[in-house]
Description:
Layout: H1 9-13, E1 21-22, E2 26-27, E3 29-30, H2 41-51, H3 62-82, E4 88-92, H4 95-110, E5 113-117, H5 122-135, E6 139-142, H6 153-159, E7 164-170, H7 182-192, E8 197-201, H8 213-216, E9 220-223, E10 235-239, H9 241-244, H10 266-286, H11 292-316, E11 317-318, E12 321-322, E13 330-332, E14 344-349, H12 354-363, E15 366-367, E16 369-372, H13 378-381, E17 388-393, H14 400-416
Parallel strand pairs: 3-15, 5-6, 5-7, 7-8, 8-9
Antiparallel strand pairs: 1-2, 4-10, 9-10, 11-12, 13-14, 14-17, 16-17
Amino acid sequence: xxxxxxxxxxxxxxxxxxxxxxxxxxxxxxxxxxxxxxxxxxxxxxxxxxxxxxxxxxxxxxxxxxxxxxxxxxxxxxxxxxxxxxxxxxxxxxxxxxxxxxxxxxxxxxxxxxxxxxxxxxxxxxxxxxxxxxxxxxxxxxxxxxxxxxxxxxxxxxxxxxxxxxxxxxxxxxxxxxxxxxxxxxxxxxxxxxxxxxxxxxxxxxxxxxxxxxxxxxxxxxxxxxxxxxxxxxxxxxxxxxxxxxxxxxxxxxxxxxxxxxxxxxxxxxxxxxxxxxxxxxxxxxxxxxxxxxxxxxxxxxxxxxxxxxxxxxxxxxxxxxxxxxxxxxxxxxxxxxxxxxxxxxxxxxxxxxxxxxxxxxxxxxxxxxxxxxxxxxxxxxxxxxxxxxxxxxxxxxxxxxxxxxxxxxxxxxxxx
Length: 417
């Protein structure tokens, strides 16, 4: 099935910095998007603009008032992008730091059993386990489906208990590339514990589109903007009204229900407006949607379809080139026919160690990443008996020609093994 983005792919790629060349190494294909997506050129320009402004918010001068308005606009943009009319958005040091803050607040405030799954990134799993221990409450570990590389609502339901007060959910795995049905998992949790505080790690999912906080019925959602076409140096969190009513770390005598500590970087907020504006533009190219939220949803659908086309090509081949599934001794993490896959293929070969595959590809200008069975990825790789695997992570600006170049390199590598 052809990609809906194919006719405008050149225009899409033109909007991103370093789309086909590394500023240090020269021409390259970027298949390391799960480690950090490419940056919109508009976000680069916005960062430079706001880095030069000396004024702070909250002062009685025109610049300060303009900065406050820009932040307010960005928060409105976030509400549209994430689809929620309640709660509050705020920025922090990173997605990991914000997950720790939300989870710490929930666990210490709710004082009840915590539940999470073995598929989770340590950003949420470590926070949940650390603060459950400090709070003196139990932690329930939901085992994920190791063959499919995901966790389901049924997996959560099988171990849920009425005393669960805090739950964590991973939206998409950065190791397997599989997306979870957050709304279904949330429903399964609330069927047993209706007032449970539910916090979602959306860091890997965000670049692939399709975030709907209201439909998910959750209390916290976190992204890292550098993984969704913005820049490094900040994270974005959304907290529900009831989560914000718990005791927060704040200045004595300061405003209530306030997550923000210290002066915020207006440029961080402004660069996320650039991201939302890009999704809006893309949705307008692929649909006749009449409003901004509908265009954002249309962009997410088109992104998903394009990435399916690329990952299916990578797995099954194109023309005379075999796909990864046709090469001898290749194991596809999560299986080769998994509808939950979101723009990522993780694999291992019997004949060539993962670290060598990544190095050889890199020497040919194809950027991928090795995932080792360490504290980041051991939860996925150890049950499969794999010391390491190769992660090839795509985004919607990647092309079929780039996938073809990757498959050609892999075929030669396999033939020479």
